Amino acid sequence: MGDILFLGHRVPYPPDRGDKIRGFHILKYLSARKRVHLIAFADDTRDLAGKTGLAKMTGNRSIIWRSKSRVQAAIEALLTRKPISLTSFDSRSLRSAVEALLERHAIDTIYVFSSQMAQYLPARPRQTVIMDFVDMDSAKFAAYAKGGRGPMAWVMRREANLLFQYERAIAARADASLFVSEAEALLFRERSGAERVHVVENGIDTDVFAPDASFTQIEAIDALIVFTGQMDYRPNIEAVSWFVAAIFPHIRVRFPHARFAIVGRAPSEAVKALGKQPGVIVTGEVADVRGWLAAASVVVAPLKLARGIQNKVLEAMAMARPVVASRAAAEGIDHADTLRVGESVGEIADAVIALLDDPAAAGRLGRDARAQVQARYSWEARLAPLDAILGISVKAPPRRSAA
Known about the structure:
By secondary structure, the protein is an alpha/beta fold. It contains 17 helices and 13 strands. Helix 6 (137-147) runs antiparallel to helix 7 (150-173), helix 9 (234-254) crosses helix 14 (345-357) and helix 12 (311-318) crosses helix 15.
């Protein structure tokens, strides 16, 4: 029985953002069954520690620094008629690392995490290829194009069209294509006609994200509304900007002392500027998001564009917090009515106000949300379909090798 090669667009360690959390738990799950070799990019100096942090879970590890600028990637894309998503992750060093590892090791499965990494597959793979798209990225760019104007709208349409063609071609070559929710899988099946499309959902570690776990508390703030996320990510920026401009003022009429905390690393300049608005707190990166979630009266996820399952929502539910989410943010989650869902400014504002008005009801909703996550979203249960997809029937202790 051969080994697995895991190709990642971002090294899945530390697991401190949505894509890295999924990648980390999949890598952990696979490594408990077979030996796994990792080749991935790093774009943050802290991620270089992944080579050491993942030592117990992997055999060989190659972490390649990704420094290509967006301008360079855009020029290459225009010259080669490729999506920017691919040229941004095109690397001679990483390609060499893949070729060398395939020559040295008996690999029978290549697990491709995110479509950008499929460009590193052999022309005619002898291995089983698992393509984890996670979300349908081309649909995301199509949504950007629809809501955009001028040259950027053209760039987004181009990206959506070229990336969709690429996604469809890769799915035709893969032995299995994975998506994080049935909604994403159904959309891809309908648009591409692809077969061998499976759903492997995200999970949550409910021992770590638990209201009685050990973490640093923050000072209590009355009527605290919290949003968490990577704050240089466009959908998150748009969500908090909309909340501050259109929704939060309605809440402040009823609760003048309410505070809205935007919690997450790498806030953009636009997000930092929101911190100058009355009642708005921009924390930047925090050591542990659980302290802010535990202190929240309400957690919000007012995303206008969201694909798949939102880890930020699962984390808040696991912390027994009442959550108000947009339909887009709630769509992929089997929440059994333990979320409050709204679409318009009025619907979201009214839902937050109602929860702030009735702390007892908010508490019950949060407890019900945690119970739902515990029953439905453990990582072991969510990743169990991988055994059948990879043809693994016996859980053998993994073999290790020196890096």
